[in-house]
Design brief:
- The chain is of the alpha/beta class.
- Helices cover 37% and strands 19% of the residues.
- It contains ten helices and nine strands.
- Helix 1 runs antiparallel to helix 2 and helix 2 crosses helix 3.
- The protein folds into two domains: 46 residues; 241 residues, Rossmann fold, CATH 3.40.50.1820.
- The radius of gyration is 19 Å and the shape is globular.
Length: 312
Amino acid sequence: MTKKPAKTATDFPPEVLSAFDQYVHGVIDRRQFLRRASIVTASVAGAAAMLDTLNPQYAGAEEINPQDASIVIDKVVYPSPNDWQGYLVKPSGVVGPLPAVLVIHENRGRNPYIEDVARRLANAGFIAFAPDALTSFGGWPGNDDEGRALQRKLDPALMLENWVAAYQYLQDRTDCNGQVGAVGFCYGGGVVNALATQLPMLNAGVAFYGRPADLAQVNNIKAPLQLHNGERDERLMAVIPAYEMALDAASIEFESYVYADAHHGFHNNTTPRYDDAAANLAWARTLAFLRAHLVVDVKHRKADQVVKKSVL
């Protein structure tokens, strides 16, 4: 059962949620957020308290306990430009090679929420692998503010090379059946879209509120994609329609879902922006999509192109 935050997005004024989105994506800094939020709260102290409430609360938010007997966890360093460390989770007691899913974190390193997502995927029958882009800094530092600051120091192109290497690492594992998908959130969703333009053999990509791929590279995409976005995510909803049109024009198989009243980050159950109905539906769709594209032999994948667009 999903553990929900005490507050929801409806407990916050829209202008504060908008400022928070800009803050976590580096558009404004902490001081600017506090100044804007204090207009609503009438004090800087009130604005600071509101920021603390909006920030992730990881304690007790896990869905799958790391000690769960149904999974096996290992931390491995895989060959990549920066020799990143990855969080590898497999179903326990399962015989035979399995499909694998690369789990790509947000813009702040592999935090406890992302590790829990990897465990959820392993619990669903996949090999899940969640690398940490902050490996060279010792990994996720324990809070997201510092994590964001550290990740901004990394070269985006080099990070992408490390994600490509993670895909190759999974595909080459003897316990993987050669079929590899990717699931990403925020920055990670953008990486999923970018990987689809770089990896013609990617079997499936699921992007939660991720930046679209370069439209000039869309014709390179071979993998089926599934996109999840919140209706109130103004920043991404301004560009998603053009991405859908480009995918459609290139005859790329994709599904695109927009969830009514949901905000950016709606799947993350450690923050008030979490939307229980949207998150559960999006996750059910994610598992169904991965099972459809990672279990069937890629040579026998149906050639029909599918485009689905819906609003929760």
